[in-house]
Amino acid sequence: MRLETLLPLGKVDPGLRAPEIPLDLASVGRDARLLEEIGYHGLVVEETKDDPFILMALAAQATTKLRIGTSVAIAFPRSPAVTAMSAWTLAKLSKGRFTLGLGTQVKAHIERRYGLSWSPAGPWMREYVQAVRAIWAHWQTGAPLDIKGPHYNINLMVPLFNPGPIEHPDIPIHLAAVNSVMCRTAGEVAEGIRFHPVCTPSYIEKVMLPAVREGAARAGRSLDNFQTCMKPLVAAAATEAELVPKIRDTRARISFYASTPQYRAAFAHLGLGDLADKLKLLSRAQRWEEMPPYISDEVLETFVTIGTYDTIAAKLLDRFGGCITDCEFSIAVKTDADKERLRGLARSIQSQSLARARSAIQGKAN
């Protein structure tokens, strides 16, 4: 299983509470070089409080081998032409190490944070990806540019705004997904999928991957090199005592995710639909601190991989080695001892073959 991470190292988004460690923009290049030295496969950046494309440029400039990618950038508020240009620039700067990860966001954010009109996300994302690829093809080969669809009408590209061909034009696109509609879309048009942290191995294998295969079959595409990526919910620390606040924060995070209607399917799959409905009502009343106690220890352990640093690698491999190719995980590095500990964790996690995950993607028995 390949290893990637967000920044800052050891980042855990607690959901209902402020992050423990804020991102220091000045440290992006330094941390990217550290990951490359340790042997990480990739570095990814999510779009929350900073522009992910700018952060990726900082990482690309500081490294030579580390894969970089957005996990994810929000697609719909950006024109496909704007996203195509950002990705093209990063592919040039990184010499082909960039992956474009795209997400949809939920209806409320599209309408009330970005000020756009909502449209069903699956068809919209399919058209969006096809438009981005058509623009890239025009730049690379001069292929005709004539995008006509419900959302986009793009047929103008004068020489001043055409960057022309690049050395590494085959930019992978990954799509974030929770529900089967977006999984099918990923199978149709993408090179990979980014599972949401609430997606358990059972949900991935029984709901999400069959939908990916259905989409790929519909489009006549191979899944031989398809990637399955995930930032699992993890509570990890050096000692059992230090695990206590980590577990508290992941409990809060699960309660937050369960309250989100768009994620209900992942909970309902496990018979937890009623729990999700209760938490939705509490979140609408903004009774945030009343939510975490609804997450029992059994539910917690269903969604969260919990362990000390000497056990967490084996636990991640056991839980996700059979369904994901790329796992997001790291620990904070404050000392040389921390650095060596992370190096050992990276070596252990990345020692496992991708064969089991590849079989699961293809729908073959492990």
Task: Give me the secondary-structure topology.
Elements: E1 2-5, H1 28-38, E2 42-45, H2 52-62, E3 67-70, E4 73-74, H3 80-94, E5 98-103, H4 107-112, H5 121-141, E6 147-148, E7 153-154, E8 173-177, H6 180-189, E9 192-195, H7 201-219, E10 227-230, E11 233-237, H8 240-258, H9 264-268, H10 273-284, H11 297-303, E12 304-308, H12 312-320, E13 326-328, H13 336-349, H14 355-362
Structural features, described:
With about 375 residues, the protein is of the alpha/beta class. The chain contains 14 helices and 13 strands. It has helices spanning about 30-40, 50-60, 80-95, 105-110, 120-140, 180-190, 200-220, 240-260, 265-270, 275-285, 295-305, 310-320, 335-350, 355-360; strands at about 1-5, 40-45, 65-70, 75, 100-105, 145-150, 155, 175, 190-195, 225-230, 235, 305-310, 325-330. The strands form three sheets. An eight-stranded parallel beta barrel has the order 1-2-3-5-8-9-10-13, surrounded by four helices. Helix 7 (about 200-220) links the parallel strand 9 and strand 10. The radius of gyration is 20 Å and the shape is globular. The two termini are about 15 Å apart.
